[in-house]
Design goal:
By secondary structure, the chain is α+β, with helices and mostly antiparallel strands. The chain contains 12 helices and 10 strands. The strands form 3 sheets. Strands 3-4-5-6-8-9 form a 6-stranded antiparallel beta sheet, with helices on one face. The chain has a two-stranded antiparallel sheet with strand order 1-10. It has a two-stranded parallel sheet with strand order 2-7. It starts with a helix and ends in a 12-residue tail after the last strand.
């Protein structure tokens, strides 16, 4: 039959291609499947822009270097990468549905008969036969088998026999499961799920970077606060010595000396509190990186903050194009659309055309020349139509309604996610501009506060103001310094929030996530 020869030819071509690709499939390599899977996703970071020329010691750690270390050692990210390896098998399972499935059925039998009054005889037989099934994306199913069964028997009727045969069956659905769209739903969903899993990994990397940067900024802030507290403590020590000298000279009352002593104790307490906060911030930072708590490092004492260049229109355009959450919602909607197609396909009548052919050649050769040897050849070909009508309409209605509602809910969630992103981007742009303005005002206020404090020190020296007024000016100056530190850190954190919303965070830190070729695109079954 010509159609059978065509299917056999197609089967041989696909089998050769499958054998060439088999060694590259994760899970097909014996003993070490994880080694193959380790290439499914990788995280690379360009360190050429690292400010290595600003290092002050071997323990100096810039923010970009900290992010690099975190991407290598952060436990949450390592766990997600391990899970990503396992998720790759979901795609392999869907792919192998349309690959030839080969199985071997073998058996060996030995039997010995011992009857009193009769000669003993033995029977030996074997059966060797590979079975191959192959389902094509168009719905066609091909089942082939080859069987070879030799046997021998001793005794009065000693003989040897051979039987060899093959069978080929081609099944073509004509209604239900007809066409690539109906049969590749699971495969296309698996490809999109790989992209979703990659996006989830990308989101984890973004979260890791934000956590590392936030922890780094916390160390910077705590370090600067500690520096401010130390400087204030040193100034309080000098002021106490001055007042002791002036009290001896009779220039100030004893209450001013007492006030200086109280201020020194207060600044000493501030130093201890700042030192404790710095130790806590360093411990949290090392824990975020996944490094031992005894790791020695130094951070940049000052982190630069640049004026925001974000425009609402351009920011919204980038966010709607690059935001990870929006990409994920869109892919999940596509999956739900395919699931509706799958539910509708299940409601169709099951009409199948079945073509089959088998051939068997059997021979029996007797040792006794008086017995006639036999040889038999059997050829069979058939064609049939089978029809199955599903009657469980309630279950089918439920499945189709469930898929439709799932799609509708997903579309609602996608629309809400889009509105949320738009609102958050607008708010983030306004917050950037507002916090930058606050930072500029705070820096100007600090400059004025320093000038006012220096003037107050001169006034106190000439008796124009009392010690209490001088202390108030000092506390105001310290608060102004701390306010600048806090506003700068808050602004830098807001920059990261904005970059995450617009999908530019990884590009900013020169981080690239490389996925396996199978997970990079979504399309038809023959991708």
């Amino acid at each position: 039959m010509p159609i059978l020869r065509i299917f056999i030819f197609l089967f041989l071509i696909q089998a050769i291609a499958y054998a060439d690709e088999l060694q590259n499939f994760p899970g097909q390599i014996p003993f070490l499947p994880i080694k193959a899977l380790s290439k499914s996703s990788s995280i690379n970071m360009d360190m050429t822009n690292t400010a290595s020329d600003t290092k002050t010691s071997d323990t100096h750690l810039s923010l970009q270097e900290a992010i690099y270390l975190g991407l290598k050692h952060n436990t949450d990210l390592l766990t997600r990468l391990n899970n990503r390896q396992l998720e790759r098998f979901d795609l392999l399972t869907a792919q192998q549905k349309f690959e030839p499935q080969v199985s071997l059925s073998n058996s060996v039998t030995y039997a010995k008969t011992e009857d009193q009054g009769s000669p003993n005889f033995t029977t030996k037989s074997a059966s060797i036969g590979p079975d191959v099934s192959w389902e094509l994306p168009f719905g066609t199913k091909l089942d082939t088998s080859l069987n070879y069964a030799p046997a021998s028997e001793s005794g009065a009727d000693a003989s040897s026999s051979n039987q060899i045969g093959y069978s080929i069956t081609v099944t073509q659905p004509l209604l239900q499961n007809f066409g690539t769209k109906a049969n590749t739903v699971d495969l296309d969903n698996a490809y999109d799920q790989q992209i979703i899993d990659d996006l989830t990994l990308e989101k984890t990397v973004e979260t890791t970077i934000i956590n590392i940067a936030s922890a780094y900024y916390a160390v910077v802030s705590a370090n600067q606060s500690y520096t401010i507290a130390q400087q204030s403590y040193q100034e309080a020590q000098k002021e106490l010595e001055k007042r002791k000298a002036r009290l001896t000279a009779g220039q100030i009352p004893e209450t001013d000396l007492t006030q200086a002593q109280i201020d020194l104790i207060t600044q000493e307490q501030s130093v201890e509190a700042a030192n404790e906060a710095l130790a806590t911030a360093k411990a949290d930072f090392l824990n975020t990186l996944g490094l031992p708590t005894d790791t020695l490092f130094k951070v940049d004492d000052h982190v630069d903050a640049e004026a925001p260049s974000s425009d609402i229109t351009e920011s919204l355009k980038q966010a709607l194009k690059n935001n990870i959450d929006l990409k994920t919602e869109a892919l999940q909607s596509k999956q739900d659309e395919r699931n509706i197609l799958k539910s509708k396909n299940a409601r169709l009548w099951d009409l199948e055309l079945v073509l089959s052919r088998s051939r068997t050649h059997s021979t029996i050769t007797y040792i006794n020349p008086d017995l006639a040897n036999t040889s038999q050849l059997s050829d069979n070909s058939s064609a049939s139509l089978s029809l199955s009508i599903p009657l469980n309409q309630v279950t089918l209605d439920q499945n189709e309604l469930s898929s439709a509602i799932s799609l509708e809910n997903q579309q609602i969630a996608e629309a809400q996610q889009k509105r949320t992103i738009v609102n958050n981007v607008v708010a983030a742009v306004h917050n950037l501009q507002s916090q930058w303005l606050q930072l500029q005002i705070a820096q100007e206020k600090l400059s004025l506060s320093k000038s006012s404090y220096e003037a107050a020190q001169i006034k106190y020296q000439y008796g124009k103001i009392d010690a209490f007024s001088l202390q108030q000016q000092q506390e105001s100056n310290i608060q102004a310094e701390q306010n600048v530190v806090d506003l700068r850190i808050n602004y830098l954190k807001q920059v990261m929030t904005y970059e995450q919303l617009t999908g530019s965070l990884l590009n900013h830190w020169h981080v690239n996530i490389e996925a396996a070729p199978e997970t990079q695109t979504s399309g038809s079954w023959n991708r």
